[in-house]
Amino acid sequence: MKEPSTEEWMEIARGFEKYTNFPNCIGAVDGKHIRIIKPLDSGSMFYNYKHFFSTVLLAVCNANYCFICIDVGACGKSNDSTIFKNSTFFKKLTEKSLNIPGPKPVSEIRTTRLPHVIVGDEAFSLSENIMRPYCGKNITKEKRIFNYRLSRARRYIECYFGILVNKWRIFHKPLNVHIEFAQNIIKACCVLYNYVRLRDGYRYEDILFETALDGLSTTTIRPGVRSRNTRDIFADYFMKEGRLPWQDKMI
């Protein structure tokens, strides 16, 4: 999977804005536990919080149900935020070496320049280029609207995993091979998935398939002030000029 150019990132952002009404979004990220038979002499390193052995597939996708990048091979026992922060993608993201476009306004009315972001769930910590939902049950309407709008963009990665498992049903049972071979199988399936997706497209029914893969555990790392302010600006935009007619009915 080649690294996107600045123009390709902008094209991904246009896709998310068109299909999910989330501006400046350049991807959706999530990680799933891939079941494996316990590797030899591995102790409890691959034993996860769901009480089975696994290796982690971390992925970022676009609004066309295709992979942008993947990270394969983290031990199931590893902490969710640690897996992401140890990935090559995150290191390049923090080093600003991924050709990601600079901040830009999300509307003609709102002149504040906001960074391009990747959306994820509670398993990922909030940062300059990573948006996660607001936590808690008793949150304001504005925050609940933001969470709904973020989930509309994030569902693409959930649908992707569903399509992947439905097409390659080897993931329906634990991979009973050496751990390095298991990782190669996962990588091969991901590359083949992109190839098939671009060649044959997809059926709407495919995206309704619920994956049997387990997600990562959540984290409670406190975000920085700048990241919280960016999220608050997005939330305010979704309540005002970026409001959708039906969003109030969805919370």
TrEMBL record:
Signal sequence bounds: none
Keyword set, alphabetical order? Hydrolase, Metal-binding, Nuclease, Nucleus
Per its record, what are the GO molecular function terms? hydrolase activity; metal ion binding; nuclease activity
Which segments of the protein form a coiled coil according to its record? none
Chain ranges passing through the membrane = none
The organism's superkingdom is given as Eukaryota
Q: Does the keyword Nuclease apply?
A: yes
Cofactors needed by this protein, per the record, are: a divalent metal cation
Record localization: Nucleus
Q: Where is the DDE Tnp4 domain?
A: 29-194
Q: What is its main location?
A: nucleus
**Record's GO cellular component terms:** nucleus
In terms of Pfam families, this protein maps to: DDE_Tnp_4
Q: Which family does it belong to?
A: Belongs to the HARBI1 family.
- This chain's protein is named DDE Tnp4 domain-containing protein
Give the source species.
Parnassius mnemosyne
